[in-house]
Amino acid sequence: MGVFSGLLGLPLAPVRGVVWLAGQIRDQAEEQYYDPARIRAQLEQVDEARRSGELTVDEAAAAEEELLQRMMAGRGR
Where exactly are the structural domains of the chain? Predict the structure, then answer.
């Protein structure tokens, strides 16, 4: 029965491969999204943009708040 079910499942192998690959890409993207080192670098970029006048104080505060929330969410995972 194992050979028979294996043969029947063979056409679905590419679909399983795509689903696995999508899961791997999602995991990698989430890992990068919640990476504390990346978030710290982005906080520094926001601070630099604020100091150079590219961002207003309110825009910088909103960006920093979003980044800090992301960092806290990453710690909770």
Answer: 18-75
